[in-house]
Known about the structure:
Elements: E1 4-9, H1 13-28, E2 32-33, E3 42-47, H2 52-68, E4 74-79, H3 80-85, H4 87-92, E5 98-100, H5 108-117, E6 124-126, E7 144-147, E8 150-154, E9 156-157, H6 168-172, E10 176-177, H7 180-192, E11 197-201, H8 217-228, E12 234-237, H9 247-255, E13 259-264, H10 272-278, H11 284-297, E14 302-309, H12 316-329, E15 333-338, H13 356-379, E16 385-393, E17 399-403, E18 415-418, E19 426-434, E20 439-443
Parallel strand pairs: 1-2, 1-3, 3-4, 4-5, 5-6, 8-11, 11-12, 12-13, 13-14, 14-15, 18-20
Antiparallel strand pairs: 7-8, 9-10, 16-17, 16-19, 17-18, 19-20
Helix pairs in contact: 7-8, 8-9, 12-13
Amino acid sequence: MKKSYYLLSLGCSKNTVDSDSISQLLNESGYKGLETPGKADVLIVNTCGFIGPARDESIRNLRELATKKKKGQQLIAAGCLSQLWGPRLAQAVPGLDGVIGTRRWMDIVSFIDTVRGRAKPEPMYHLPTDALTVGDDERGAMRTAVQGASAYLKISDGCRRPCAFCTIPTIKGTLKSRQPHLILDEARNLSESGVRELVLLAQDLTDYGSDLGLKDGLSTLLNDIVDAAPRLDWVRLMYAYPGAVTDTLIETMASQPKIVKYLDIPLQHGHPATLRRMRRPSNIDWVYRTVAKMRDHIPDLCVRTTFIVGYPGETDEEFDGLMRFVEDMQFDRVGVFTYSFEPGTPSGDMAFQVPEDIKNQRRDTLMLKQQQISLVRNQQQVGKTLTTLIEGHDRDNELSFGRSYRDAPEVDGLVIVEGTIPVGEMVPVKINGAMEYDLTGSVEQVSNVVALDQISVA
């Protein structure tokens, strides 16, 4: 009888890519993926360990599966929380059979086989800390995750930045870029399979290739992807590091029509003193100059960023500085998070922790300010025609939902379009209404495009 598995993927889109790579290796080894856990031989949770609420969600799901686990089933914890906690995770989840971390996810098949064949009931661990071999030993698994007509593609893993609040270097290790030919092969494969939007992922896209000795590695890679995968309509960049957006990258984005005019650049704060405690780039003048330069060279550029409020030591003056910064910059998209205490990070030992009620109040205040800005930015789109990638419909099939170049998957708004349009089509939509996050419109004309039911990934 064919072996089977159930895999629950938690956390960010980068984790989704890891989950899809794990599934690919299991499928190729003879396992069958199931949509529900009840009849699976192996239960896998690809955990998230980035912040407290994500850890809580991972533990909650593991405990639920452990409680319902049937005789003969094996429960495996994979991913970030596994790497971060190790044996502590098995103590938190009675009934856990195995723990495999982020550094050797590609050993998943042999690890599961060992867990299933062992005689002792104690959990097994596979948590090397010095064996990150991204791009060198991925067992041939594609580092992609296809979602409809869009696909994520991971170009590197790990991070060498010193951010005081972040556990990623502990979890993932330092930067390890994948070889360009692997990325180009996968981009070409996705393009030829009908994928229309390629979203490039990394902990820090702008650092790509520095460990390979490449100068302007991201810009070179972008040009090569456009040449290698000409059928792609959009190439989107996520997670650019402040201070690392070069003139070369700006020129590449400006000159390549298929690179969407969208950049996610997580700034984390807008006051130099807070940024210095965060061990983040604190040259606010650089941000003003660079964003102005990008907007000048790239008309209709959409800029997304994220901020942390309530960071240890954040004063009223520093928060007011962040509010003024947001007002000045007029970002199109903003995510706001309250600081999460992360044991083992430099920020975890800082004095002057901000009370939770103050954190929440500051988050709500900043989000209200950004909603006002976002509404104005969206209202500026009224009357324009935006190419929209259709991704779904309402229950009555009277409306279609999609995204323009201004909207990244999962994190941004929608374009709500009158009528029923096949999922996977890209259509020109005349915008006639704007809300804080979403736009409304109607199709100006329907182009001859590939529908989602024609998409299949080899």
